[in-house]
């Protein structure tokens, strides 16, 4: 199955949990990437600060909160040992 043309990938470490809805898994979090910090949103159940995530989705401009990465898929990275 082809990905949408505007689909992007974002990898980083959760630095802060801004909002979490435990009922449906929706979360807003701050993600530290190699390019800098950004806000990621989407169905990201039980995110934890320090956790490494790989997100697939697209960039959106929220009218109130500004630029955010809206995740369609989330992969949790295995801890480094």
What does this structure look like?
By secondary structure, the chain is mainly beta. The chain is 0% helix and 63% strand. The chain contains no helices and five strands. A five-stranded mixed beta barrel has the order 1-2-3-5-4. It is globular, with a radius of gyration of 12 Å. The protein starts with 7 loop residues before the first strand and ends in a 5-residue tail after the last strand. The mean pLDDT is 91.
List the SSEs and their pairings:
Elements: E1 8-20, E2 26-33, E3 36-43, E4 52-62, E5 66-76
Parallel strand pairs: 3-5
Antiparallel strand pairs: 1-2, 1-4, 2-3, 4-5
Low-confidence stretches: none
What coarse outline follows from CA principal-axis ratios?
A: globular
> What is the SS-derived class?
mainly beta
Radius of gyration: 12 Å
Characteristics of this structure?
single chain; 81 residues; mainly beta; five-stranded mixed barrel
